[in-house]
């Protein structure tokens, strides 16, 4: 033992030479800077343990560092040192049983060929290190892998490298999804190899037998028949990585009724298990959602971009309805960008999301997506509410021009909506809830009381907004229902349009709000997997429908669209027709206004319908 010698800076080459009976060597808490020469120990002991710990100035493990250790079983406990990297062929010539590298806080790199030339290890412990990747060679013999608190290890090597793995203790639950897939593959492989034999196993549950599964220390597996005094078959570790659960002597096995587990291969275990928020699946989970989300996000982006382009480039005066529609289109455009980002990452990580989950959910990409969706959702709901109130106000006070909502009123109202939406979207980035909880980057973290209050606040405000929208449209419908003002066919048209507006709002808000409120009270009624259906089918309904219901289907928008197209050399005849109709309507209104001392019922009706048309 060489312990607690901080002044020991160097051990000369050959200091440990010809020590045939040495079983254990410990060099801990010294000031050594260069890895000591251990190649000339030549211990004849079958099991040898080398311990290097708390040597903080020792930064590398060089090539052939342990070459002279030809013991049948070598345990290397290399923990709490200053290692930063391990060179190629560092363990060349050894027969490793355990390789313990835990608590090397600065260890960032193990060369891909560090284990080349070595047999084993059976146990590898890299917990509490800064490793970003595992070597691509030498993992085939590992049966136990410990990588707890290895937060930089975000990706795993190809799964076929872990052909002998039986137990994995990892940092991230998503990595256990990889081994769950591997476990399924092993089960299928076992069934294909031993399918006929498994029927005999199952039948052994119903009758006594002297045939047993046996596993010796070298993990060779065979089926022994006491009656026939022979092995029915045998497989070695190279041809079959499976072992069986039952190990009994003859006296214990005579006349024993097998349980079903004895007929199954010993399957690897992995912790921590994936939780309810991060199940073992791709970002979108279902295949049909992967197709549908592309159609929805393209529709949302194209529709809202078109509305924005037409409204911004229009040469007509910027009115309050146009200004509000620009804000709504921008909000819904951001929702389309969120869906596009989710769809793109899902397409890139399909089938291997477990290897990308940590980078995605803890990185800037998920935070950006989460910000987009919360900002867009809240600004859209806020703007829809303002648009509805503006329409109700316009119809209610149609003849009182002094009470008309002006642009100077609408700008500060919408500025308040922008500030509110940005604040709500930024809070998860500041620790109030989190966008990292789930793969779809929604703020579903309700672990703290503040996070729970945040989620409930958003949901309650959205419900209140929906109630206000419904109330305003009901009042609008009552106003335009007056037969003295509007003809019956016009009344039906208005009713249908308002019904569609309310239905789309309800379809978007109701399912999300219902399930989200129950989850906020920690009584979830739907799984994260099923919530992704809501995300794609219901959550963006307004973003897709709003540009059509509030803009594209209106006469004013179609006029602006064809006028814009005429500037580009297209649809000139349609544009000219709209110009003539607009001029005729304007002239007619001027004549009607000058000929009568007050507004007629017909003009009232036109005002009501024009407010809804806007």
UniProtKB/TrEMBL annotation:
Pfam families per the UniProt record, alphabetical: 7tm_1
Keywords linked to the UniProt accession: Cell membrane, Disulfide bond, G-protein coupled receptor, Leucine-rich repeat, Membrane, Phosphoprotein, Receptor, Repeat, Transducer, Transmembrane, Transmembrane helix
Keyword Transferase: no
Bilayer-spanning residue ranges: 291-312, 324-345, 369-389, 410-433, 453-478, 499-521, 533-553
Main location per the UniProt record: membrane
GO biological process terms, semicolon-separated: adenylate cyclase-activating G protein-coupled receptor signaling pathway; hormone-mediated signaling pathway; male gonad development; ovarian follicle development; ovulation cycle process; phospholipase C-activating G protein-coupled receptor signaling pathway
Membrane topology: Multi-pass membrane protein
UniProt key word Transcription regulation: no
Matches recorded under InterPro entries: GPCR_Rhodpsn, GPCR_Rhodpsn_7TM, Gphrmn_rcpt_fam, LRR_dom_sf, LSH_rcpt
CDD domains: 7tmA_LHCGR
Subcellular locations according to the entry: Cell membrane
Annotated ranges, domain G-protein coupled receptors family 1 profile: 303-550
Molecular functions per Gene Ontology: G protein-coupled peptide receptor activity; luteinizing hormone receptor activity
Gene Ontology cellular-component annotations: plasma membrane
Primary role: Receptor for lutropin-choriogonadotropic hormone. The activity of this receptor is mediated by G proteins which activate adenylate cyclase.
Family: Belongs to the G-protein coupled receptor 1 family. FSH/LSH/TSH subfamily.
Protein name according to UniProt: Lutropin-choriogonadotropic hormone receptor
